[in-house]
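Hi L.,

As promised, TonB-dependent receptor:
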Amino acid sequence: MSLAVASACAAFAPSYAQEVASTPGAAATTDQATTAQEATTPSSPAVQTVVVTGLRASLESSMNLKRNAQGFVDGIVAEDIGKFPDTNLAESLQRISGVSIDRTIGEGSKITVRGVGPDFNLVLLNGRQMPTSSLGDRPGRAYDFANIASEAISQLQVYKSARAETPTGGIGATVNVLTARPLSRPGQQASFGIKGVYDKSAENLPADVQRGDRVTPEFSGIYSNTSADGRFGIGLSASYQERNLGYNQAAVSNGWKGPFRGDENNWGTIPQPGTPGSENITNRPDPSDLYQVPQNLNYNMSGIQRQRTNGQLVFQFAPTKAITTTLDYTYSENKIQTRRNDVSAWFNFGPSSSSWTDGPIAGPLVYTEIINPATSDIAMGGADYATKTENKSLGFNAAWRVNSDVRLELDVHKSTAESLPDSPYGSANTLGTASFSRGTTSVDFSKDFPVLSIQGADFARAPQQVTGSVFENGYVKSEVKQVQTHGSWKMLEASELKFGLAHTDVSNRSAFSVQQRDTWGGATSPADYPASLFRAESLRQYFDNIDGSSNPNLFNTFYTFDFNQLRQRAAEASGLPDLYLPKTTYDTDQRTREKSKSLYLQFNTDWDTALPIHTSVGVRYEKTDVTSTALVPTATSISWVSQNELPVAFGAPAFTTLSGKYKHVLPSFDADIDLRSDMKARFSYGETIGRARYDQLTGGQVLDTLARVEGGTGRQGNPGLLPVKSKNIDLAYEWYYGKSSFISLGHFRKSLDNYAGQSQTVAQPFGLRTPIGGAYWNAALANGCASADTTCIRNYIFRNFNGQPGVVRGPDDPSGNATGTITGQGNDPIANFRITTYSNQKAARLRGLEFNVQHMFGNSGFGVSANYTYVNSGLKYDNSSIGEQFALVGLSDSANLVGIFENDKWNVRAAYNWRDKFLSSTFDGSGPNPNYVEPYGQLDLSIGYNINRNLSIQFEAINLTDEIKRIHGRTERNLLFVEQSGPRYMLAARYKY
């Protein structure tokens, strides 16, 4: 029998994806449903199919998809029309061995597969490449599954091995998301659901950031119908979901200064032996040890409202038995509104005391900065912004069965993803306030929760006032135009030749602007802000689930405010209302276009040997041209406005254009052997590519708006980057010992080349002059100021050189220190900037094991599914090394355990997902430092009851055990952030007919 016919999911185009047939050795079909999909055309081969109706049937169908597939394929099948097993597709995908997820706002968003990060996993919708956009991350290729509701999804297919007919881009995996097609389900069918959602995290928030009602609604419906003659079909699905939630974070949000060696002595280091303050160091790091000191500590509480709308309209027409056409339109909209209040303390690396863990990587147990008098700032900020992401896809497909041996297909689509502000206050913002009454400040890092202690805080003596502000506007749009043709020709009795070509045109635009007022020492007078604008809050209650939050030394009182009320007051008091709104133009505008052409040949055949063998050999050719155009601002000057803040001024922007190109020949080979009617062995070799992120490709040098005493930062892309190329080997043994039970063991190896290494180079763009190290600075040093005491230096310059070129003194702050601006002059040093860029310089090797077991306990209704994935690579982050280095992000072991019970009335599923510690980034807010996500496990539960054959009710609980998420740096004491959210409960009713 042809392998193409034997495969349950052998092609990605929409009509191919809906076909299925039985294969020798497969389990017999039953009224529980053993097939993944039904045929889409009347002329398709007759097969026995039934509708998937329950948890057990869904698991059985997923097992048969795996069993009958060509290559290494896993999947998840809907229990019924309009009823996917999980409310979030990423949460479903994590149940598959080798798939791990990244969580955002308490739910799955992006996937890592077999240790390969989100940007190198390709997502298709009905076989079509989908664009992606996001304002909350760097412009990349990682698809955010939070944009798709699950109600209209009939199946998820995860292709882990390479095949010539598979579109390129998925090194870890290619995920094909299949939606319902009316001609696949003849007759009239419908399902409607309503759900109430209670997210406990929305309660544990300050009043100024809480949003909306405690219980929010979800509505969904799917309807399909076909004509009596089976020639015409229409399908419509829609869903609307609201969710109110919150999360609370404690964070060293700007990263850790360093790392330093124990014998270093410069700005930010702890006092060396024999110097003042050295006696205050406990368990000092040894000279060869590495250590870091915190730059700030921030507690923030965020309240979020989300509204997600999804819809799809499908028309199918089969004018003859040989031709089927499909026209479909898919739409999704994801709106997110965010309010935040926070309190923070910034360290200026003055006199300090500290205690440390043992080396060679020493972590802080307690870090204290000695401040006397108590005149530093206790910073309290707020935010109120909103974003909207829209996804649109219009596609047409025509499948023609020329004769019994030849099929041809044309598929065309245009799809867009667009993210933009949805608030008059922009896509992100911060309004800072402060009380200048902070004395000696300490942080205890010995527990999961970092405990901030402040001496001298006195809000009566130093009332809160507005300080600096930042208003951002962002815009990201990605568009895919794609034309694909596919064909197959059955040859002889058990062979098939597949062929196809495609043209894909991908455009990506990323534009941003920043309106920043760097008056962090005080924008106006405290008298401008009546006390009624601020509300006292207790901090501890918002972190009660994190170890260490009960420490009595915690600085527990802070103040929140209504963002818009205070913004309006600051605009009135300053007389500069435009500075408290986002710009209407963009400072940067980066555009990248990729045009790719591809063609493939793939030959499938069956071998009638003692042990039946099914093989597939193929080759794919890809050619891509890249053009990048960037509008970047021209920097004109640097000014010193506070102790460690030197904003960069910009003039008129200008466009630059760069280009690149590459081509690849990608071979593939698959074989599976029927060891017995219930046993298979598989082997696969293939080569795949994964394209660089858009922010890595985009040309144009962009400087960050705020420099520091030690210099500034910036970034520049490289459109000449080659894609990562992976050579993949897969081996597996599978034993299907029951109708719904199996065991499989797999081994995989990946050899990856051309990773884009992120590096920093020191440059002096635009010849900008900095007052740091200039004539005024040196005069202050010559008159007794220490180089680390920027307060002393600024006071000396303002009191001795006010009115001289570049020096403009303002009023003294409440502590008696001078304020004002010092601008770099022509004889001052040229400022250094650390520019982050990319080049093809890295290679990686990884290998792993996957173990799966699924067992149904006879007719008892009980079943269990479990899997474990082990991933290993020698390319890990070296915590003892200083500077930029390359390591694989996302690499981690993972496991799942799912238990079910089902009878004619009840269905119960408990699912536990665990992911081990993994490296999520090689840069933090201060530079090249690791970010490790600590091990995380989550328990989800669903209980359903069928009132009758049409009506059912369902209870679901997500994160039932209320887990926290924590990320650290080189040691567990180098906290980056710890997050507390909460469980989510849902009660639903569903009616179908």
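The first strand starts at residue 73 and ends at 77.

Thanks again for sending the construct details.

K.
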